[in-house]
Amino acid sequence: MQAQAAGSAQEQQALAGVFSGSRPLASIAGDSALLRDWERLESCAPLPTQAHAFVAALAVTLLAETAIEIFTAPGLEGIGALLPLCRAPGHFTAWRMAGAREVFEPIDALCESAAAARGMADRLASQPRALWFERVPAESPLIPAMKEAMKGKGVLSVRPAVPCPMIALDESWHEPEGRFNSGRRSDFRRAARKAEQMGKLSYQVISPTPDSFDALFDEAVAVELCSWKKEAGTAIASQRAKEDFFRTYFRAACANGEFRLSFLRIDGRAAAMQMAVVRGGRYWLFKIGFDEAYCKCSPGTLLMLHTLGWAAREGLESYELMGGVEPWIAEFWTRDQHETMQLRAYPFSLVGMGALLIEASRWLGRRVARAVQ
User: Fold this and answer.
1) Integer Cα distance of 369 and 154 in angstroms
2) Residue range 90-133, pLDDT digits in tens
3) Residue 283's pLDDT band (cuts 50, 70, 90)
4) What are the φ/ψ torsions at residue 225 (nearest 5 degrees)?
């Protein structure tokens, strides 16, 4: 009996070693079991930023020089929770969610259940480094789990972060013009007439093949460079690593059948574009752009109106504008939004408390500087 009990304990320890802990992202490339678990977990997760393809694209582009670790916790059948975290070099640097700063999108842990979320929170609370999570969905099970796990183990701050605008879709959006007041409908008609005066107006919502992807992606990037984004330095092509990231990620989404590239064309020339991913029954709008040569006809507005109707007719449940709430979104399209939260956790460890002191001194320095000004 004692030998059997010892064997059982050893088996549990072995399982814990397989299913719980953290590993460098690069080390899992040949781990088919872990990749299968990741695929299983992300199949039920709505956020495209939770996909392996998203993190893998970051690892070879925007985060190529940054350490990325995959934190896991056990579940009913293998891994039950998974979270990619990254950090800068340094003794007191904090773990943060991979991609949150680089593309400013909401990110969350993959958790099959509330119990798995608690396991992940326990894992995070037991490691020594600070945790800075920028935009976690407010309904994430990780938030209450972290509140419980950090009790007596460190300092935790949870505050509202930048929300994500969205439009809930139903059959009334099949003809989206009808969802707006008479003034807005008049604006849409006027813009369409101006576009038609410039040439033949046409729309495309394309699911590219891997063979056609690069040419269409290049065309969309070129459209964005014809707008104010080029001078502002926010265009995809303004930063090589950013362009490489979106090309890599969208190519993977293309192979999965999730990528959608939309154009408004005037006499065949692209006047506006959208890059989006269809995932979890939602239309996730990552990038928009228009050619300022056609600004008088508001091509970006016309294309958004078209893709809203397309998404509704496809039976998608929502149109996710990604990024943050901006005036042009709130004034013209929607005031509905997903709330997100910012988490800061500082474990009671030398490293964690050191990070807290550094952050507190920076905060105090900013306050003093503003007072002096």
Assistant:
1) 29
2) 899 999 999 998 998 999 999 999 999 999 999 999 999 999 99
3) very high
4) -70, -15
User: In 3-state terms, what secondary structure has residue 91?
Assistant: coil
Sorted by where each starts, the structural domains of the chain and their CATH numbers stand as 2-162+340-372 (3.40.630.30), 165-337 (3.40.630.30)
For residue 67, the cross-strand partners are: 87
The pTM (predicted TM-score) of the whole model is: 0.87
Tokens of 286: 């990552």
| 230-255 as b/e: b if 16+ CB within 10 A | eeeeebbeeeeebbbbbbbbbbbbbe
The amino acid occupying position 103 is: V
Rounded distance between C-alpha atoms, residue 183 and residue 188, angstroms? 9
SS3 label, residue 12: helix
User: Residue 178 carries which DSSP code?
Assistant: G
Span 182-197, average pLDDT: 94
CA distance 191 to 314: 25
